[in-house]
Each structure stands twice: as structure tokens, then as C-alpha cells.
Write a structure and sequence with these properties.
Elements: H1 2-12, H2 15-20, H3 23-49, H4 68-116, H5 120-126
Helix pairs in contact: 3-4
Length: about 130
């Protein structure tokens, strides 16, 4: 089951589509996959913690005594990579905002310089 969900997330987040697609769409795919995988992990933890609910006719359910690291180590690594992608997207968005702000400031400086130019010769010197 875990391998299937990991495989499905990998297919859904194909590297070609994520890197070549629209940023907003790719980020939505990353967020969706991250939510599903985290829900899968938390569902496992909830079921493991509440094994007593699954008793039938007073028979004890055998506790799950195997290590979750054996099961979830690759999934946890994949989730960390998705979280890094999500964080990186936030950094890229902040960088784009900074670049846009710088462009506006430079545009304002050039407009002011052209407005202040006294003649055609000075206008060409600004350019």
C-alpha cells in the first residue's frame, strides 16, 4: 500500500511536469501530494494508537511492534523533499517580488531622469 501511494505521488509529480509546467499548477500538485502523504502517515499512526477498537469478541489484537522506520523511511524522505520544494517556491516568490520592486524603482528613476532632461542631447545621454 505504501509503495503504491509513493509510486502514485511520483507519477502525479513527474519531474518533467513539475519543472516545465506553470509554477502555480506545479505548486498545487506538490501541496496536494504532500497533504495526501501526510494524511496517509497520520492515518497509520491513528490506527496504530487505537488498535483496541478493532477487538472482536474480546480477543486482543496483536500490537504492531515493528519499527515505523522500516515502513516509512522512504516516505519520510519524500515528504521532506516535497516540503523543501514548497519552501523553495516561497523563496522564489519573495525573490520575484524583490525583482519587481527593483524594476519599478529603476523605472521611476529613468522616468524622472527623462523628465529632468533639458533637451534631446541630455535625453540621449540618459539613455
Amino acid at each position: 500500500m505504501l509503495m503504491i501511494s509513493n509510486y502514485q505521488a511520483n507519477v502525479y509529480l513527474g519531474p518533467e511536469e513539475v519543472l516545465k509546467g506553470e509554477t502555480a499548477e506545479s505548486l498545487l500538485r506538490v501541496k496536494t501530494s504532500l497533504e495526501v502523504l501526510q494524511l496517509f502517515r497520520s492515518t497509520y499512526e491513528d490506527h496504530r494508537a487505537n488498535l483496541r477498537k478493532y477487538q472482536k469478541n474480546g480477543t486482543m489484537v496483536k500490537p504492531w511492534d515493528f519499527s515505523t522506520l522500516l515502513i516509512f523511511s522512504r516516505l519520510d524522505q519524500f515528504i521532506k523533499r516535497l516540503q523543501n520544494i514548497k519552501e523553495f517556491e516561497g523563496d522564489v516568490r519573495d525573490f520575484k517580488l524583490m525583482v519587481d520592486d527593483t524594476d519599478r524603482r529603476l523605472g521611476a528613476i529613468f522616468c524622472q531622469a527623462f523628465d529632468d532632461a533639458s533637451g534631446l542631447e541630455h535625453t540621449f545621454k540618459v539613455w
